[in-house]
Design goal:
Number of strands: 2
Radius of gyration: 33 Å
Largest sheet: 2 strands, antiparallel
Structural class: mainly alpha
Strand order of the largest sheet: 1-2
């Protein structure tokens, strides 16, 4: 047998193209026909499938976002339904807890709808129902005002008080109460006028470089609020015993003595402020991305910020003009709403949260054991002060508010 047998062409194994051989393809051979069609390299096949993969990824992302949005909307609807049931229960409690001691159910319910005459109509329809509705509507306005400022400043501790709304409204109202208390709607008009005058001064003094600087706005607002508080304290020194008692009750915040005229003022104010909140909410959503990016997206940053400031001031001042500066409602309504439905939807839920807080506090103020009767603002302070401390502690520990 020869030492170097010659291999025939029929018996030689098939040679695959080498990457080093000239004139051969550099791409690796497909492993199966399924991986690459005949005559096409896997790289070419992958290049053709990339757009499809990108489209599939975008569709999957859009589907996930849509599912998350629907889940958030369902949660918002559920929370709204629960809050509405709670408000109906609190409204019934406010009417019935005291009324049933004197009248039966057959007298209380018809009197609430104006279908009775005499003492039942006077107590239920003229005293208790206006008080309950004033608490509900005033709380909704306070909750809306607080949520607007917290969304604007991007801080859960922000309230209309940071620009002196309550201090300005209090100074105007106390002036009217002590000097000319008999003017119809004079206290309401003076409270709104005082709040807007102070907010206008804060806006004028906080402009820097042609736009409102948030830091300057807060500092100047605190300073001017201190001036208004000092003015109010000075008025106390010249007030008589009867006037001092009336002023103190108003400044603490109480829905006692609410009338149907006050309820009408609050209802119209809430309707107007709610309608104006719709475009402002869209602008605030853009501002949450930052001033530069919001301006790049076409938002008028200065106008949006001024509109939010004025709208929040109007809501707080109109509520204060009827029920007084009930404390801590503006502060706690927004964070509670954010915990229930998320920050983006907190502005939608905050009015209902504020209404539940004030109406519930008023029920406790009227019928709570050991403490009743007290002004409504005293109860909200007992509730809001510990929550305020909790918010500060959580922010100090880096926890989300």
């Amino acid at each position: 047998m020869p030492d170097n047998p010659v291999t025939t062409a029929d018996s030689a194994p098939p040679r695959t193209p080498s990457a080093d051989a000239p004139g051969t393809a550099s791409a690796p051979a497909p492993r199966t026909a399924k991986d690459a069609p005949a005559g096409r390299s896997p790289r070419a096949v992958a290049a053709d499938t990339r757009p499809a993969a990108r489209e599939g990824g975008a569709a999957a992302t859009a589907a996930l976002l849509g599912a998350a949005r629907r889940a958030a909307n369902r949660r918002l609807t559920l929370v709204w339904a629960v809050l509405l049931l709670l408000l109906v229960g609190l409204l019934a409690a406010s009417l019935l807890l005291g009324g049933l001691r004197t009248f039966g159910v057959g007298d209380v319910l018809p009197a609430a709808f104006g279908m009775r005459t005499g003492i039942a109509d006077y107590v239920i329809h003229r005293i208790r129902l206006p008080r309950a509705l004033a608490a509900l509507l005033g709380g909704a306005l306070f909750g809306l005002a607080g949520a607007l400022y917290q969304r604007l400043v991007r801080n859960p501790l922000a309230t209309p008080d940071i620009v002196g709304v309550s201090a300005g409204a209090g100074a105007g109202a106390v002036t009217m109460l002590l000097l000319v208390p008999a003017v119809p709607l004079g206290v309401e008009a003076a409270a709104v006028g005082g709040a807007f005058a102070l907010v206008g001064a804060v806006l004028a003094l906080s402009r820097s470089g042609g736009k409102v600087d948030t830091y300057r706005l807060v500092i100047i607002g605190i300073g001017l609020a201190a001036v208004c508080t000092a003015y109010t304290n000075y008025l106390f020194t010249s007030a008589g015993k009867q006037g001092l008692s009336q002023v103190m009750r108003w400044l603490i915040g109480s829905v006692s003595g609410a009338t149907w005229d006050g309820v009408t003022t609050l209802a119209v104010s809430l309707a107007v402020c709610a309608l104006c909140t719709v475009p402002v909410h869209r602008a605030l959503s853009a501002l949450s991305l930052g001033d530069d990016l919001a301006a790049g997206l076409g938002s008028r940053v200065g106008a949006a910020r001024t509109a939010a400031l004025l709208l929040g001031a109007a809501a707080a001042a109109l509520a204060t003009s009827v029920v007084g500066p009930i404390g801590f409602v503006s502060l706690v309504s927004g964070p509670i709403a954010a915990r229930l439905v998320g920050t983006d939807r907190a502005l939608v839920l905050a009015p209902a949260v504020g209404a539940a807080i004030v109406l519930g506090a008023d029920v406790v103020a009227q019928h709570g054991p050991l403490i009743s009767p007290v002004p409504t603002g005293a109860v909200t302070a007992l509730i809001g002060a510990p929550y305020f401390v909790l918010l500060i502690l959580r922010r100090g520990q880096g926890a989300p508010s």
